[in-house]
Amino acid sequence: MQLKPLESQECENVNRVFIVDLQSQDPKEQHRLYAKIITSALLLSYGIRKGTAICIRLPRGWLVAHGGKVRRLFADESSSTGLVRAAMRHGFHSGISVETSCIYANCCRSELDIEEMCEVDQGRNLSSPICIRLRPSNHEVDVHGYRVAVWYLIAIINIILDILGFNT
Fold first, then answer.
1. Where in the sequence is the domain holding 137, given as residue range(s)?
2. What total number of domains does the chain contain?
3. What is the pLDDT of residues 113-149, one digit of tens each?
4. Structural domain contains residue 168
């Protein structure tokens, strides 16, 4: 697996950053899980897609999807999993890359965890780019006593941010 550093000018093109720190994962299921996370963050609308980045912690490095650069991403699991596999095999493929770090984490002006996300309203002044950090356990995040799959939660957060007028 080839690692390459990320260019700092990428910060200018991003409004939302999802940083996903997976605690444990089944090696047989990892590509499928990464693909679900990426598609849930990028496929709601083109506006969301072009201003969103996703960083997924790997055992060594980060899998980073640059929303505005991702090509040939479809909702079906087999094609999205294929993109992830190709990126992990070659270091970069179609806007998804393996990086030494997630520079987007250093770009963020506002940062929310899931508890803050549940309570955010229009009165809160959010500066772009905003970071949403998720630390799922067994692919789920606890939200006020409910266990929600991380890929569903990312889609819900994107919808909430759009409703609140936090446009990308």
1. 8-163
2. 1
3. 666 665 655 545 666 777 888 888 888 888 888 899 9
4. no
